[in-house]
Amino acid sequence: APVPAAPPRSEVLTGDPANNVTDYIYSKMGTNLHLQPDHPICVIKQAIYNYFQANQPGLFKTFDGLHPVVSAHSNFDEVLVPKDHVSRSPNDTYYVNADTVLRCHTSAHQAELLRLGHPGFLVTGDVYRRDSIDATHYPVFHQMEGVRVFSPDEWTAAGLGPTEFAERELKAALEGMARTLFGANIECRWVDAYFPFTNPSFELEIFFNGKWLEVLGCGVMEQVILDANYPDGSGKKAWAFGLGLERLAMVLFDIPDIRLFWSGDERFLRQFKAGDLKAKFKSYSKFPPCYKDMAFWVSPEFTENNLCELVRGERGAGEWEGTHYGRVGALVKESDMLHLDDDVRMGIGGDLVEEVTLIDSFTHPKTQRTSNCFRITYRSMERSLTDDEINALQDRVREGVSGELKVELR
Ligand code: PHE
Question: What was the ipTM of the complex prediction?
């Protein structure tokens, strides 16, 4: 899919008296977290798309690249937001000029997509709201809108009236989605709500980590929206929902702060993978790293795992239960470890070592000896480290490496 670029700066920061978009907000446009395959926002998006596709193959058309700059008409009027509704105020919404806004919800695309006549569609995109900033609020976030249109034969076959039928179908579809994301045993409840564009309206809550969490808004589409936009709309009935992808991702992946989505930090990004709904975020340090490089000629017995163990005290993953790779290269029982030197048992740097990476390796053409250069990243979870303590640690690492690993430091 073509990636929608940020619009030209002059089209957003217009200098119009009504313009209240800041450079900061403009700088977020075109980032498109929902289009980066391994980004948690995109992982959730794809899981929901897959769910609807598996449930009703081919029915839902997906739209990922619709532009976030929309008319105030489509953002508000076409979804029946009253003229005096707070969301229209420039205190809540970013205006490009008096008639143009940064969409504050994906519902801004309901009417235009209904006019295309698809019986089902899912729209994902970045939405913008002026709001306080805290761990769960950010002025840009991502929503997905879903719409499904029914024909009379569908509710007739079910022996229900159009509204009852649409409501039943809506709740079944969204409960199924919640089970797909959060597991078959997730507890759901429906709470009555109000939206200008649906009637009746509901919020779905899930019981997660001991409390009820709102995950989406939805309802049976107001008939006038269908009448005005869908081909032959007055004979049809529809449901619609809108959900916040950050909220879902924070709950599902245990992500504690909404800013992490935007950090671009590899330590965040590499924890998530397309298709993996089981990932749980592990926090990393906010304190600065300190890098130390170390080069040596390797011996035939040298392995990177032995080095890591010496440096950090890392153990073989899982399979060495009851035993630890204590002394370098030797598997020892827990009971024997008490006799070992602390450095070897615990690793010299312990948890202060964040990462050990091979940054360079070459083999001397004449002697055929191989030299490796490793970079050790030191970083504390709790505090800034001092030069003195890192230098002292690094000296001990160098001693340990030449003594225990029998390599020749350069
Ligand atoms: N647009 C609503 C919001 O942003 C969510 C919603 C979408 C509710 C569709 C009902 C139907 O809060």
Answer: 0.99
Residue nearest to atom 2 of ligand 1 (CA): 242
Angle, to 10 degrees, between the axis of helix 245-253 and the axis of helix 40-55? Answer: 100
Q: Is the CB of 198 under 6 A from ligand 1?
A: yes
* Nearest residue (CA) to ligand 1, atom 6: 242
Q: For residue range 31-85, list pLDDT tens digits in order.
A: 999 999 999 999 999 999 999 999 999 999 999 999 999 999 999 999 999 999 9
Which DSSP state fits 289?
P
The pTM of this model reads 0.77
- Where b means 16+ CB within 10 Å and e means fewer, 231-266 reads eebeebbbbbbbbbbbbbbbbbbebeebebbeeeee
Contacts of 257 (CB under 8 A, 6+ apart): 135
Residue whose structure tokens are 């800034």: 384
To 5 degrees, how large is the angle CA 7–CA 10–CA 13?
95
Distances (CA, A) of 164 to 36, 43, 56, 325: 38, 33, 20, 64
| Cα end-to-end distance, the chain, whole Å | 50
355 strand-pairing partners = 377
387 C-alpha to ligand 1 centroid (Å): 53
